[in-house]
Amino acid sequence: MKKRPILVIDDDKEIRESLQDVLTDEGYKVVLAENGQEGLDFLNTTDQLPCMVFLDLMMPVLDGQGFRKEQMNNPNLSKIPTILFSANGQLDKRALDIGMTDFLKKPIDLDELLNIAAKYC
User: Fold this and answer.
1) Which positions ≥6 away from 78 have C-beta within 8 Å?
2) What are the angstrom distances between the C-alpha of 115 and each of 26, 46, 104, 110, 120?
3) pLDDT of 26-78, one tens digit each?
4) Contact (Cβ atoms closer than 8 angstroms) between residue 62 and residue 71
5) From start to end of 45-108, where are the E strands?
6) Beta strands of 1-121 (E only): which ranges?
7) How far is CA 70 from each of CA 43, 61, 98, rounded to the nearest angstrom?
8) Average pLDDT, rounded, for the chain
9) Residue 9 and residue 84: Cα distance in Å, rounded?
């Protein structure tokens, strides 16, 4: 198992659990959050920051854009590679606008997902 976890933030339970299954099968430790606020709460209380964050754009409570803004305002968190994923057709522009490291379009291509995980973790 890899040392640092991957944080997956998505309000869709099936997507969270599917990503967890795929990444765990590849030897990654995965932490799940239902929305941006849960993700921030984890980041602000953990002893071990994740090697990367997979972040959905559209979520209740705190969306991906709000999460990223808070993340970028914290020097300890701003360096964590953050990968946006969304079904939104303008994903590449939205990702660049909020300073994302990379992006994946839903439905997520698993080979692409694993390539990105290998690149940052």
Assistant:
1) 71, 72
2) 11, 26, 11, 8, 9
3) 999 999 999 999 999 999 999 999 999 999 887 889 988 899 999 999 999 99
4) no
5) 52-56, 82-86, 102-105
6) 6-9, 30-33, 52-56, 82-86, 102-105
7) 11, 14, 11
8) 88
9) 10
Sheet of strand 82-86: strand arrangement: 30-33, 6-9, 52-56, 82-86, 102-105
Q: Which positions ≥6 away from 23 have C-beta within 8 Å?
A: 6, 8, 30, 113, 114, 117
**pLDDT score, position 99:** 67
What is the Cα–Cα distance from 87 to 4, expressed in whole angstroms? 28
Using only C-alpha atoms, the chain has a radius of gyration, in whole angstroms, of 13
The pLDDT score that the predictor gives to residue 38 is: 97
Q: What pTM, to 2 d.p., does this model score?
A: 0.90
Whether the pLDDT of residue 89 is over 60: the answer is: no
